[in-house]
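Lab notes, practical 5.
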Amino acid sequence: METLVFPKDFLFGTATAALQIEGGDTNNNWYQWAQQGHIKDHSSPLRANEHWKRFKEDIQLLAELGVHTHRLGLEWSRIEPKPGTFSQEGIEHYLEEISLLRKHTIRPLVTLYHFSHPLWFEEKGGWENEESIQDFLRYVRFVVEKLGHLVSDWVTINEPNVFLSYGYVLGTWPPGKQDSQAMIRAARHLVLAHLQAYTLIHELRKKEKEPTLVGVAHHLRVFSPFCQFCPLDHLASLLNDYIFQGIFLEGMGRGRFLPPLGVGYPMGKGRFQDFVGINYYSRDKIQFVWNPPELFAKRLVAKNAPTNNLGWEIYPKGLSLLAKRLWKTYRLPLFITENGTCDKEDAFRPQFIYDHLKEVSELIAQGIPVKRYYHWTFIDNFEWIEGESAPFGLFANNYDTQTRTWRNSARFYQEICRTRTITQEMLSRYVQSAYHSLS
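Output from the prediction step:
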């Protein structure tokens, strides 16, 4: 393993989502989903990490970790508990939290929407309802007017493709539908909401000194044919790539609707992102099957491939493959807005971090402007449908006592943040275990 050295202006950070860590909120679609019994381990986001109460000690941990930036989410239901009615308590809490981050010289990257929304929004039909666009923009305007002097970097929407796939194709996430037409309506509204929010945020911050950066955190995967000699596997791979991520990259990045969302440029041709956010975890090997709702594809793991505790393939090269493609297409700075792995014993997380940062280092050496890396995640948390059973954190969390514990990977990441290097001495001290493989 090689020594890695990163540029002085490269930012290392961590990423979290409000619903997954805050706890204490019952006015959102995911609390309702948990109450209906859909979470695998029967846990609930009502507990999570109690970060809403413990944010000061958590930010102290981030400061000790030495991160340069932190990606945090806002919980819409806490800020706008009723349509058009905003909570002073809610927005003041986020003002205090972000101010404390900045006091520790941690640059905030704020996510406005990360899968979770108020119950009143869900009851109106959520993103299927055309009014969802204006509802979202009203919320965005309030937030940016209140926080814009502290926050220059924004993610409007996190992983629209994941939200839609699980919520409207598989039906395992709220709203629990299997309805392709509803998915297309919701997808159109999500894209339009981002396009208009991008313009609005820039307009609201035009007098601020710090340049405004707005983008989307896209969940991106590598889709490879399971059989290299099977044309239908190749076709299914291309189709999945196009539907799962291509239409969102073009729609939200350039304002260009592609079928099945539509055609043309609803807000005119332009650039609607200042960076491309990459959430990267894995690759799928695609095998053609005659099953239209699943896009003619069965998603498999390559034979004997290393995997994490959830069975996801660990494929660091995929990060480079995606980054090169995005740079060639969009010519914009790239932020790795999420990258991490589920590893209960912290056996291979240091190796995972090294392998993916090695890809980042090589991209930078090739002149591709990867500017930031956000590790997912800071602390074990409520991992959506998996509940509390899927640990992605640099810090372990005991949910009964809410005790945070430093993992070996956290110590490793601390040194990376402090020095912007990975030395042979660090590798020998922290990277001790390799991945396991599927038989």
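Observations recorded by the TA: The first strand starts at residue 4 and ends at 5. Residues 4-437 form a domain with the TIM Barrel fold (CATH 3.20.20.80).
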